[in-house]
Design a protein that fits this description.
The protein is mostly beta strands and about 575 residues long. The chain has six helices and 41 strands. The strands form nine sheets. An eight-stranded antiparallel beta sheet has the order 4-31-32-41-34-35-36-37, with no helix packed on it. Strands 11, 12, 13, 14, 15 and 19 form a six-stranded mixed beta sheet that branches. Strands 16, 17, 18, 20 and 21 form a five-stranded antiparallel beta sheet that branches. Strand 17 and strand 18 (about 245-250) form a beta hairpin. Keywords: Glycosidase, Hydrolase.
């Protein structure tokens, strides 16, 4: 029987960065989580059977857990970074980091000295665990001795569990160089194993980047596929040079045995295992290294497509094997809006979640000068992952056809991903139950701006707030028949008012084409946003570039909020 589905990118629109997912075999569904930085509730959980329709089923972090995680005391673009979602010893587990904590604010807000000591002993790294994806989630379990950001948690076939993450290189060869380290961890106590065996006697550095002057090797994930353990890392930074790399180690009897074999081989070659710091090892030797890189790296990027490509910053990927649809990855990307200057790209929506099919391929030639016939590949060797084979970039749409004799996947680019013609309607005063707050600042409730253009009615009572961060935002409110506005661009601000000149007419703000425009029509309803914009009179139009990530800095996207 034939079945066809169409998957549309991005699968999660508007500030859903750093996606991580698993196939939940017990309930036959995909489970996905994304970063939320300083937003509360945080770590939203989405589920889907086939990637075409995603349901938001829960939030891992509520107000109480946010306080235990010290989220009320983080700076802009701080808070919850890069979760990894896995099943570990039968439980749902999320490994994550709290970044950019303001210690002074935390102390003034009532944090105890012991709370801050546990936080700093773990460098903000923690575990949450649950028996059900809907919760309740238990923790945080602060990981004492963790160092860096972007933790990964991996359970190998032999039962060993590995904590892996990135940190600034201890002895960097160039600015921006980082290193990925791993250590076995006890999932019953969430403490590091120290048994004198490989990856159990201090941290073991396993990667520093793919090439000369490579920077920001981060977001590591370990996977077992066949007889190999694969390491995937994002490199180049989460901006226009973002990319995804693949490496692997032959480990048919487990990663621990593979590390032991590496140390024996190094000894036989007369190569001393480098010591990064006392009690730490490095598996990046001069003659050999433990993990070998895919020579076709990067396996995913858009940096080679140039600035004419509207989807940029692609990377931070996570693999998944769907029992019916095969191998896929989820990653982040940024839909850019073109500015008036040459080469000017501006992002307002934040980093969103995209998916792509993955195939596994072997090199069809062994490259021996003397020949020797067809290359031999043993059964346990899956080869290397290839993303969107034949396309070279993420697809706007992916059609998947399943038949009795297999799966056919057709990714295609249909048009620009930069924006949509039909304006989205976001009424911040409609009483939505899906709103979030920033840290614990409950005077404004926000929702993500998920597409451009977006039309936002100005409340008749209260204010519309369009926020990039605490120093870059715009406020619109009604005072009689006037619309009052304030634009805050760092240390600069602009305020004023425009007259609507008619009672009972509700003006709206259109966010499009790098501008914020106050529009009014004779229509008393806003059901048809396209007609409203087409027939509307523009009372005010201002440059909105100060709300872009490129101008404001940080990692988040714009949100629309209601302030009573």
């Amino acid at each position: 029987m034939t079945a066809t589905i169409t998957i549309t990118n991005p699968i999660l629109r508007g500030m859903n960065p750093d996606p991580s997912w698993i196939w939940d075999d017990e309930f036959q569904r995909i489970v996905l989580v994304t970063s939320t930085f300083e937003l509360v509730p945080g770590l939203p959980i989405y589920v889907s059977e086939d990637m075409t329709c995603w349901k938001h089923v829960s939030n891992v972090i509520d107000a109480d857990l946010a306080r235990r995680l010290l989220i009320p005391f983080v700076d802009d673009s701080g808070g919850v970074y890069a979760p990894t979602l896995r099943r570990i010893h039968g439980k749902y587990v999320i490994a994550c980091t709290i970044a950019r904590l303001d210690d002074r604010r935390a102390m003034e807000g009532g944090c105890t000295e012991s709370e801050l000591m546990r936080f700093h002993a773990a460098e903000g790294n923690f575990i949450l665990e649950a028996d059900s994806i809907e919760g309740p989630w238990h923790g945080p379990f602060w990981i004492e001795g963790a160092e860096g950001i972007d933790p990964d948690i991996f359970e190998d076939g032999d039962g060993n569990v590995y904590w892996t993450q990135t940190r600034p290189a201890v002895n960097p060869q160039w600015e921006g160089q980082t290193e990925v380290w791993t250590q076995r961890i006890n999932p019953e106590t969430w403490t590091f194993v120290d048994d004198g065996l490989p990856a159990g006697s201090g941290k073991t550095v396993i990667w520093r980047g793919y090439g000369m002057e490579s920077v920001w090797a981060e977001a590591p994930h370990l996977y077992r596929v066949g007889d190999y353990v694969y390491l995937m890392t994002a490199e180049g930074g989460t901006s226009f040079e973002h990319s995804e790399m693949a490496m692997r180690i032959y480990a048919p009897h487990g990663l621990l045995r593979a590390f032991e074999a590496y140390e024996r081989e190094a000894s036989e070659l007369g190569e001393c295992i480098p010591q990064v710091r006392d009690g730490e090892r490095c598996y990046l030797g001069t003659a050999i290294r433990a993990f070998h890189a895919d020579k076709k790296n990067p396996i995913l990027t858009h940096r080679h497509l140039g600035l004419s490509e509207p989807l940029q910053c692609v990377g931070h990927a996570d693999l998944l094997l769907h029992p019916k649809l095969g191998w896929w990855l989820v990653c982040l990307g940024v839909r850019e809006t073109r500015g008036k200057r040459d080469g000017e790209l501006l992002s307002y929506l934040g980093r969103e979640s995209f998916v792509a099919p993955v195939s596994w391929e072997h090199n069809p030639a062994d490259w021996k000068l003397d020949g020797n016939g067809a290359p031999y590949t043993h059964e346990g060797d899956p080869g290397w992952p290839v993303t969107c084979a034949g396309l070279g970039r993420l697809a706007d749409e992916i059609t998947v056809t399943t038949e009795d004799d297999g799966i056919a996947i057709e990714p295609r680019v249909k048009s620009s991903l930069a924006g949509d013609v039909e304006p989205a309607l976001v009424d911040v005063a409609d009483g939505s139950t899906n709103d979030v707050v920033v840290r614990d600042e409950r005077d404004v409730s926000y929702r993500r701006i998920a597409k451009l253009p977006t039309l936002m009615p100005i409340p008749m009572s209260g204010s519309l707030v369009i926020r990039q961060n605490s120093t870059h935002y715009a406020v619109f409110s009604m005072h009689g028949t006037d619309v009052r506005y304030e634009m805050v661009n760092g240390d600069d601000s602009q305020a004023g008012s425009v007259a609507v000149q008619a009672d009972g007419v509700r003006p709206a703000v259109l966010f499009d084409d790098n501008r914020l425009s106050v529009i009014v029509t004779g229509m008393h309803g806003l059901v048809d946003s396209a007609t409203f914009v087409r027939q509307g009179q523009v009372l005010l139009s201002v440059d909105a570039r100060f709300l872009s990530t490129e101008w404001a800095g940080g990692f988040v996207g714009c949100m629309a909020g209601f302030m009573a």
